[in-house]
Amino acid sequence: MSKSLLAGLLFILSLLTFYGCGGRGDQQYDKQSGSRGIAISDSSVYNVAFLIMDGTYNTEFTAPYDIFQHTRFREGIKPMNTFTVAKTKEPITTFEGVRVLPDFDYLTEDIPRIDILVVPSAEHHLDSDLNDYAMLNFIRRADSSALFVTSHCDGAFVLAKAGLLNTVTSTTFPSDINTYREMFPSLKVADSVIFVHDGKYITSAGGAKSFEAALYLCQYLYGEEIARSLARGLVIDWDLSQIPCIIPQ
Cα separations (Å) of 241 from 141, 150, 172, 174, 192? Predict the structure, then answer.
């Protein structure tokens, strides 16, 4: 093989390596600056933290994550910078078996400013997770400065146990409403709704309706046009007037 041919092959190989590693100009993963390349200290974004743990349910995690992450592709708005937090940096395994590598460990690391805390449902949110005082204390700390705190499905149990929902109306997974009322008899609980927005708290029934609760927050922050655009991008019919919910008047 001639030197010129070898040099040409090496050049092509270097290009393939460059483009194959994200050199197309795409946002690249940067552990120090947020999970999707947006600086976590940047005040021009909303920092959105997803609290995950072993047993987290896929839909309640990925549905709002999809909606919020896609705000980065809409012009003229303050986008959301999404990242995950857990009590470990080791992979967590969702209830359905997906392994997720958390961005931050709230036990050992300083967590970036959290503007929006999302608490997806998890397998043990009705039992052992309610005795996880390190997790509950993290939620309370995040709540102290967050603009919004949201839960999906049984994530409301964790917020209630942390004492965040004492003065607001909330909801949870439909078949767990009675258990929710029994466990927290002093709470104001809404039934037969997809989500409730009261104060800075948004609690949802979860499941596929987690998309709708997340779209609602986007409409609240950015307006109906942006919310409809985000919905179209995920092939979702969105009309807030058709959603059973409790929202500020």
Answer: 34, 21, 21, 21, 16
